[in-house]
Write a sequence for this structure.
C-alpha cells in the first residue's frame, strides 16, 4: 500500500492523520515500511494495523510514543494487549464502558500511572486535580495525570496547564446553566434528564474544543 492508500484506510477513525504524521512515526521507529528501488514507501496490512494501534493509544490513552514503542515491543514478543474500554459519553449522555470509579488515592494513582507523587502534588497545586475527600482524588484524576505527564515529555511546564483548568471550568459553567432548570425540579425523572443532558452537552463541548485545537494545530505546518 502507498501512503495515500494508508491514509484512506485510516481516515474514518483518524481523520486528522497526515503523510507527515506517518513519516514522523516511521522516524520514531514505530513502523518500518518497505522501500521500492525508487525510494517509495510501501506499507503492508500489518504495518497499517501497527499504525492503527499507535494512533489509538495516542487518542484514547494519551500515551507518549516512548511508552507506545514499549507496548509494541511487548506485542511483538507475544504479550497480549490490555483492552481499551470506551471512555466517552454516548449520544444520550450516559457514559459508555465500565462504571465510573468513585475515586483514587494518590498511592494508587502513582502505582497505576507510574507518575511520581511530586508531579501529582504539583497538579493539585495548579488546580488541575481536585480532591473528592482528603487524600483521594476524583474519578477523572487518572486521565488528567496521564495527559499532563505526556505533555511534560514535550517540554510543557505543569504551571502552564492552569489555563486548561480555567477553560474547562468555563465550559462546565455553560453546561451548568443549561441543566439548571432541570436540577431545580425535585422529580426523579428530572434528575435523570439533567444527568443525561449534562453528559451530552459536556461531550459536545469536548468535541468542539478538540476540533478547534486541531484546526489551530493544522495551521502550524505548511
Amino acid at each position: 500500500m502507498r501512503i495515500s492508500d494508508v491514509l484512506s484506510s485510516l481516515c474514518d477513525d483518524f481523520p486528522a492523520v497526515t503523510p507527515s504524521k506517518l513519516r514522523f512515526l516511521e522516524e520514531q521507529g514505530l513502523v518500518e515500511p518497505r522501500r521500492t528501488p525508487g525510494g517509495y514507501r510501501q506499507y503492508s496490512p500489518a504495518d497499517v494495523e501497527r499504525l492503527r494501534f499507535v494512533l489509538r493509544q495516542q487518542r484514547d490513552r494519551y500515551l507518549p510514543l516512548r511508552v507506545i514503542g514499549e507496548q509494541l515491543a511487548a506485542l511483538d514478543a507475544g504479550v497480549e494487549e490490555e483492552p481499551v474500554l470506551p471512555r466517552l459519553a454516548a449520544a444520550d449522555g450516559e457514559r459508555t464502558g465500565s462504571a465510573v470509579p468513585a475515586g483514587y488515592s494518590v498511592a494508587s494513582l502513582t502505582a497505576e500511572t507510574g507518575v511520581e507523587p511530586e508531579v501529582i502534588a504539583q497538579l493539585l497545586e495548579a488546580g488541575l486535580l481536585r480532591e473528592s475527600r482528603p487524600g483521594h482524588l476524583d474519578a477523572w484524576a487518572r486521565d488528567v495525570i496521564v495527559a499532563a505527564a505526556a505533555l511534560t515529555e514535550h517540554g510543557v511546564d505543569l504551571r502552564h496547564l492552569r489555563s486548561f483548568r480555567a477553560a474547562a471550568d468555563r465550559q462546565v459553567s455553560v453546561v451548568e446553566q443549561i441543566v439548571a432548570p432541570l436540577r431545580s425540579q425535585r422529580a426523579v425523572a428530572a434528575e435523570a434528564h439533567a444527568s443525561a443532558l449534562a453528559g451530552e452537552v459536556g461531550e459536545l463541548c469536548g468535541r468542539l474544543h478538540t476540533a478547534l485545537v486541531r484546526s489551530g494545530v493544522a495551521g502550524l505546518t505548511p
Observations:
- The two ends are 25 Å apart (CA to CA).
- DSSP finds nine helices and five strands in the chain.
- The first helix runs from residue 3 to 10.
